[in-house]
Design a protein that fits this description.
Layout: H1 2-21, H2 29-43, H3 47-56, H4 65-78, H5 82-95, H6 102-118, H7 128-149, E1 159-161, E2 168-171, H8 178-186, H9 192-198, E3 214-217
Antiparallel strand pairs: 1-2, 2-3
Helix pairs in contact: 1-4, 2-3, 3-4, 4-5, 5-6, 6-7, 8-9
Length: 218
């Protein structure tokens, strides 16, 4: 019964996403096939493969909002990882602040914030300090949404490649977490430890991440 309810949410998301976006914002054929394959994996119970497929269909265009929504549902309903779910819910609101799922997403975010504020995640990645910083990140998101509504241009990315090397640098912004920074560079929040390990000495404790820090991104 729970699986049927979850798949119904995914199906409704697909219908609403097409209806709200119009032809110019429909998912391109290749991405549409990837999304369809991800839906099949979800129906088969292969949630990790479904997540990988959805993430490969993401870009920074408004049409990706629906994919972020589906990813958030997977992380929330099936993987029980509220941190990752919050990230994708927030990306949905950034790309589609008035989208068909906006109110539902806000309610999900309140639930996940409460869960993060009172417990550790299943893999003990999220501490209470990180949960507090996550709330600050949500404040920054609201500011971004206000800028979007006011048609202000988005803030440029702060990533630069080091001359002659494979590493990059990133200046931490207000509300950033290691998970959100990992998503910017690797399209996956699960690689946050790679960034932490590359900045030993500067960032031994993820809870000490502060705006203005310059991180090495391997």
């Amino acid at each position: 019964m729970l699986m049927k309810s979850f798949l119904k949410k995914i199906a409704v998301a697909a219908v609403l996403g097409l209806a709200a976006g119009g032809c110019d914002r429909m998912i391109p054929p290749r991405s549409a096939q990837i999304v369809k394959d991800a839906e099949n994996k979800t129906a088969d119970g292969n949630f990790l493969r479904a997540i990988t497929l959805y993430e490969s269909a993401l870009d920074d265009s408004p049409r990706a909002a629906d994919v972020h929504y589906r990813l958030a549902l997977l992380y929330d309903d099936k993987m029980h990882e509220p941190l990752h779910a919050l990230h994708h819910f927030k990306r949905y609101l950034t790309l589609a602040p008035s989208g068909p799922h906006a109110n539902e997403v806000k309610n999900f975010m309140k639930k996940d914030e409460l869960e993060l504020g009172t417990t550790l995640s299943g893999d003990a990645v999220v501490s209470r300090a990180e949960a507090a910083r996550l709330r600050n990140e949500n404040l920054a998101l609201r500011k971004d949404l206000d800028e979007l509504r006011g048609n202000r241009p988005p803030e440029p990315k702060a990533a630069d490649k080091k001359p002659g090397g494979a590493s990059r640098t990133y200046v931490v912004r207000e509300g950033d977490t290691l998970a959100s920074i990992a998503r910017k560079f690797y399209k996956s929040t699960g690689r946050w430890k790679k960034i932490r390990d590359a900045n030993k000495g500067l960032l031994d404790d993820p809870a000490k991440l502060k705006p203005g820090m310059t991180l090495t991104i391997p």
